[in-house]
Amino acid sequence: MTRTVFYPIGTPGTPWTQKEREEWRASQPRRRSYAVDVVPRVEALASRFDVSVYGSLDYGEDSYSLYALRNGAPDPALPTALVTGGVHGYETSGVMGALQFLETRAADYAGRVNLLVVVCVSPWGYERINRWNFDAIDPNRNFRKGTNVAECAHLMGLVAAQPGPFLMHIDLHETTDSDETEFRPALCARDGTDYEPDIIPDGFYLVDDGENPQPAFQQAIIAAVEKVTHIAPADAQGRIIGSPVVARGVIEYPAAKAGMCASVTTARFKTTTEVYPDSPHATPEQCNAAQVEAVCAGLDYALANRGTIPSPQR
Q1: 136 by DSSP, 3-state: which?
Q2: Which of 31, 33, 141, 166 has the maximum number of C-beta atoms within 10 A of its C-beta?
Q3: Which phi and psi (to 5°) does residue 308 adopt?
Q4: 261: domain range?
Q5: Residue 312 lies in a domain
Q6: In angstroms, how far is the first alpha carbon of the chain from the final one?
Q7: Helix (H, G, I), strand (E, B) or coil at 247
Q8: Which tens digit of pLDDT belongs to each residue from 248-258?
């Protein structure tokens, strides 16, 4: 069943033109500061990690430096793991969880793995608490070869320049009530399509790469996160956000086909976390802690089960 949902920009059934995109952009005030919330914490880590700027974004009067952190010079004898946060800027614990991991737990992996951490892929979206970037584009559907989405192109360039193959990539996200109240209606308005309502799951879940599923890896993360916050149940149709539940707290998407951030490496072990910050049973502190537990559990499992790492295919 589909239904028309009023969205204050555009004409129902008609895709947006540049005029509507500009109208949408004008309706997105800055609500928090990347320069205040994120950059000082990154700079404070410079004494413990190699901090570099891997790109910059220039949107109107706003400019943002994009930061990557490494736990030292890459050691070719060690596997490499990528942690990304803030691909969707409004998903706060993705950014804060990545920072908290660096501040509290990353040192545990010194000499065991080459860590590459990007704490906020989409700072314009972070400041507006929005899923989209300046151009009303979802970065997490545009990680594709030849992309013209700056957030995606910069991250893909960073990954391509990393020596050696990746063992693991974990991309930190949230599913929020605003997905149904704002972002999916906005998507349908932008694309001129009908809105089909869905149910926001109450709890944490994972999105495995359907093109290379690793069920034991996913369950190791679920078991660790469950100590911090609750796991989302399936709905009455056995689904989470419209996708069949393949194991407790796990659904699958074909990451590369969907243009998701989880497709930027050829790592054997990949996942996208989804924390639910609007639950009455979860606090912001629990959400951040859940992201940290997910990263650590993923690293622990991947390192214990690394076997032979295949040659990189980019």
Answers
A1: coil
A2: 166
A3: -95, 125
A4: 18-304
A5: no
A6: 41
A7: strand
A8: 999 999 999 99
